[in-house]
Amino acid sequence: MPESEVLGPVDYVLLEFHEDRLTGRAAAAVADLVERGIIAIYDLVVVGRTTQGDVYSLDLADTAGEAVGVFRDLAGAQTGLLDEEDLAAATAALEPGTLAVLIVYENLWAVPFVAAALESGGEVIASARIPATDLMAALETWDARRPAEMTS
After folding, report:
1. Domains of the chain: which residue ranges?
2. Distance of alpha carbon 75 from its chain centroid, rounded?
3. 60-66 — which CB contacts under 8 Å span 24+ positions?
4. Per DSSP, what are the bridge partners of residue 124?
5. Which Pfam families does the record associate with it (predicted)?
């Protein structure tokens, strides 16, 4: 199967930010991944919850300020994969006084691997994502145990 007919895995991430800590670095990092062809953005939405608990969304094309940074350049990423129910679930997860970026993206780096697996008759029978925080905690535990295991 030609790579042009294959899609990479599509994931979503909901990143919550406290409004007073926005730097724009996350937006720049996402833009860099897009520019390098590592991911493709399907949908990108910014939602928030005021300190009073009211829910809002931002129109990135009309939003000024450094906080949204390069996310503004991705304002057109709206394929329709996200619906009102998804946005309601995202905003329900937010703490008051925070905003979040909900991003649906394709892992383009995986396309050659997926194509090769399909051509070889392979099929995905299970898939999961290990959250980065869980991985970091597991590696810290492993690093802490490793010297003791090496000396025994």
Report:
1. 3-123
2. 15
3. 66/22, 66/24
4. none
5. DUF6325
Locate 136 and state its tokens.
């970091």
Distance CA 152, CA 150 (A): 6
pLDDT value for 125: 86
CB 60 within 8 A of CB 44: yes
Identity at 130, one-letter amino acid code: I
pLDDT digits (tens, 9 = 90+) for 11-37: 999 999 987 777 778 888 998 999 999
Q: For residues 1 and 68, what is the distance between their CA atoms, to the nearest angstrom?
A: 39
Local structure of 146: helix, strand or coil: helix
* 140: its two tokens: 């810290």
Place of tokens 């994931």: 11
Q: Give the sign of the dihedral formed by CA 83, CA 66, CA 27, CA 32.
A: positive
Token pair of 40 as six digits: 């493709």
Residue tagged 């025994």 (tokens) = 152
> Phi, psi at residue 99, to the nearest 5°?
-135, 160
The closest alpha carbon to 74, from 96, 116, 36, 105, belongs to: 105
